[in-house]
Amino acid sequence: MAALAKKRPARHRTRATPSSSSSSDVEAAKRVVSDLRDACATPATTLDAVAAAMVGEMDAGLAAEGGSSKVKMIVTFVDALPNGGEEGSFYALDLGGTNFRVLRVRLAGGGGVAERVAREVPIPHRLMSGDDATSENLFDFIASALAEFVADEEGRDGDGGDGERMRELGFTFSFPVRQTSIASGKLIRWTKAFAVDDAVGEDVVAALQAAMSKHGLHNMRVSALINDTVGTLATGSYYDDDTVAAVILGTGTNAAYIESTNAIAKLSSPPAELGNSSNTMVINTEWGGFDSPFLPTTEYDQALDAESLNPGEQTYEKLISGLYLGDIVRRVLLKISTKSSLLGGGDTDLLTTRFVLTTPDVSSMHHDETPDLAIVADKLAEKLNIRGTSLETRRMVVEICDIVATRSARLAAAGIVGILRKIGRGGAGDERRSVVAVDGGLFEHYAKFRQCMESTLEEMLGEEAAARMFIKLANDGSGLGAALVAAAYSQS
Question: What is the pTM assigned to this prediction?
């Protein structure tokens, strides 16, 4: 997942309240909204073209390393997913954002999780970018917190930290890596707010393992390296063995799915790790980098991309994920403020501050059902210092939220359909039940986004096929999933 450049601090000067709007002001604002709707349009033909383009990039990515510059199709070496019969205690480390989590999960067999304990630790910004952002410093900080958590947990259980027992750890590392085995992988690039340059090209498991040893965790083994999407797939599979794919729809987006090894041409000679003859392999698509001429982009997307840390990259993600939707809406409101006085004619400090408006803000306004759209008024005042708007203007803001969220949800659905088509699911005559596990706040908490995505899936698949396809929320796939994969690959 990608992130944009740091926000400029806002000066928070007093913003003028909107003056009485003229008919020309209203018409100018309506033209901005109308142009936005046209530019974000996702008719059925566009969605089918996006799904087909996704399949084409997936095929290219499986054919050869680097075959697709847009969809990496990373071989995860996960060819065995948990089946519900696993037992014992397993640890997980989930690193994917400005906080990381450490977990201890006790599995009781029979598809149950007997206990799950987690701790969240914020990462100092200086370790994510800047002079102190080195691989050694970052992993040293992480291993220190992990060691403290292990000591606390085993002290609580009266374990006493048995030095002879090997502990198994699943490591969720939600950044693009090129894996070389189930428990090793070299970082391709950082995304989000990370810029630890000397870690690029290095084995992140080796770096973590060295740091763990430094902090006394000699008897802890990283048994599986995954990302949050693979973890979500593992969690979905643990509870429902018809799970064929997983999607993250949160701050960022990604997808993983189960592929036949025969379709992975770049596996010219099956590695030793494929010794269980499963004939399947989990593929981490890294679909956030997908791009296509069929994707409906706007001037606001182009400006957002140009100001990002990674211009020209992660195009699909910038159109659909939670990190960006709020800022797209902000940019539309900023343009309206330059064309009319509906949003005030004074200081624009807050309207020009990137990411001051978040996707949860957009969701709140989009779901406002109060007669006078009081929630919209409150959000405009709280986040943008815009006060005194008319009901008509607030309705226009809701419409903008709807346009941006609808495009996002429909494009996400097109990507899912692309994966289903790639593996021969959901077509005419396919009677199999197919489950897609989904994790992430955008899907979980933004009800209108979720409803739109699900209705779009039915539109694209047809009512009969859609009745055999299920979207299931898989909470904490990135954390629980890491422990579950560690259990599946346990050597104890």
Answer: 0.89
